[in-house]
Specification:
This protein is mostly helical. Helices cover 80% and strands 0% of the residues. The chain has helices at 3-70, 74-87, 92-104, 108-121, 126-138, 142-153, 161-178, 182-194, 200-212, 216-229, 234-246, 250-263, 268-283, 292-320, 329-339, 345-350, 353-372, 378-389.
């Protein structure tokens, strides 16, 4: 009966092999796990090495592009930034600088595509909003330009945010002045003035902008602030003189303009205004603190100047033809001639009310001839300013 014994031995061998396999299984699993970990670490390391290499190459191209962008080599910068983007397609910095380089090449349509994408990703980015405002301004899309400018003013900026926001508001003001939106420019200027530092250059520039917006009161205030620190600054003195002149404060204008011309003898506009302001002060009979005799002498001089203005205006009109003579001029000439015998020193002393009557006629002559007879003499220009100064009085 040998067969049952062989079966028993065979079964025992299988059991021994199975037990041996069970003893080896943990070792095999451990080895497999170790190999998996090793492969994972290796793949991760290789991936990191690849990413680091990509980052290194992208950054190298980016640094080259940044250097060319600073130097104004926009064509090279565009090529280098595009190369950088091959290694990091979603890099915000790479796309932003590429858009800046495209602006340098005046390829605004391409730049706009990048900027609007960057704006979608970071709508609070100050530089992106500013560039979008500039593009909209160039396209004469005023509403869009204003929206992006205001976004840029209140956006986040790298570095000194206060300076960036102030400079952006200045650019907005210059844009508004360029499109003749003076009321909006004045409102922005008031906001700017509230945030200006105690720095004379900034205050003088603020005064210049207020002048352009024809807000002479605020302009004068800014120039005065600047002059407290730099009392001999020729630009601030000239600006203060012009502001006071436009406000009809001729005595104050005369003081500032004298200092401006003394500081800068080549300032021809200030010199001309100084001469006119001095004439206004000399020829205004309604000034305080002048004697009756001085007043009467001024009235006599003004009356003579008005008569000469009528005469030169009539002569010019006659030379060009009757159609060019102002309609109201004959009546003014007759009125002047009728009043002339009464306008004497003794006549003015006897009848003080004649001062007002004579000056009303002088002012009427100067107003009407200024629009009909072309350029006036220095005296006539001064009388016209005096007329404006006393309107409604």
């Amino acid at each position: 009966m040998p067969e049952p014994q062989e079966d028993t031995q065979s079964a025992g061998g299988v059991k021994r092999q199975f037990r041996s396999y069970l003893r080896r299984e943990p070792v095999i699993l451990a080895l497999l796990s170790a190999l998996a970990v090793i492969f994972f670490v290796a793949v991760t390391a290789l991936s990191h090495i690849y990413e680091a290499q990509q980052e290194f190459l992208g950054n190298r191209w980016f640094m080259r592009g940044s250097a060319d962008l600073k130097q104004g080599h926009f064509e090279s910068a565009v090529t280098e930034f595009r190369a950088a983007l091959l290694y990091s397609r979603d890099s915000y910095a790479y796309q932003l600088n590429l858009a800046e380089a495209l602006i340098g090449l005046k390829r605004n349509a391409e730049a706009y595509a990048y900027f609007i994408n960057l704006w979608d990703r970071e709508p609070e980015n100050g530089l992106v909003n500013l560039e979008l405002a500039r593009i909209a301004a160039q396209k004469r899309e005023t509403d869009q330009a204003l929206r992006y400018y205001h976004n840029a003013i209140y956006a986040t900026w790298p570095g000194d945010q206060q300076v960036q926001r102030r400079d952006t508001r200045v650019e907005l003001i210059e844009y508004l002045l360029n499109i003749k939106a003076k009321a909006q420019a004045q409102a922005e200027l008031i906001a700017l003035a509230a945030n200006l530092e105690d720095e004379p250059v900034q205050q003088t520039h603020g005064g210049d902008l207020f002048l352009q917006a024809q807000d002479y009161e605020h302009a004068l205030a800014e120039y005065r602030l600047s002059l407290k620190v730099q009392p001999h600054d020729p630009a601030a003195l000239a600006g203060a003189g012009l502001s006071a002149f436009q406000l009809g404060r001729y005595s104050l204008a005369e003081n500032y303009l004298q200092d401006a011309v003394s500081t800068n003898p080549n300032d021809a506009p200030s010199a001309a205004r100084l001469k006119t302001a001095a004439l206004v002060m000399q020829m205004d009979p309604f000034q305080r603190q002048i004697s009756v005799a001085q007043r009467d002498g001024i009235v006599l001089e003004a009356f003579v100047a008005a008569g000469q203005r009528l005469e030169s205006c009539s002569a010019a009109g006659a030379a060009k033809g009757p159609a060019t003579i102002p309609v109201a001029q004959p009546g003014l000439s007759e009125e002047w001639a009728k009043m002339k015998p009464r306008i004497t020193e003794s006549g003015l002393r006897r009848d003080p009310d004649l001062v007002n009557t004579a000056m009303e006629l002088v002012f009427g002559i100067e107003r009407q001839t200024s629009s009909a007879c072309g350029a006036a003499s220095e005296k006539d220009a001064a009388l016209l300013l005096i007329a404006k100064l006393h309107e409604g009085n």
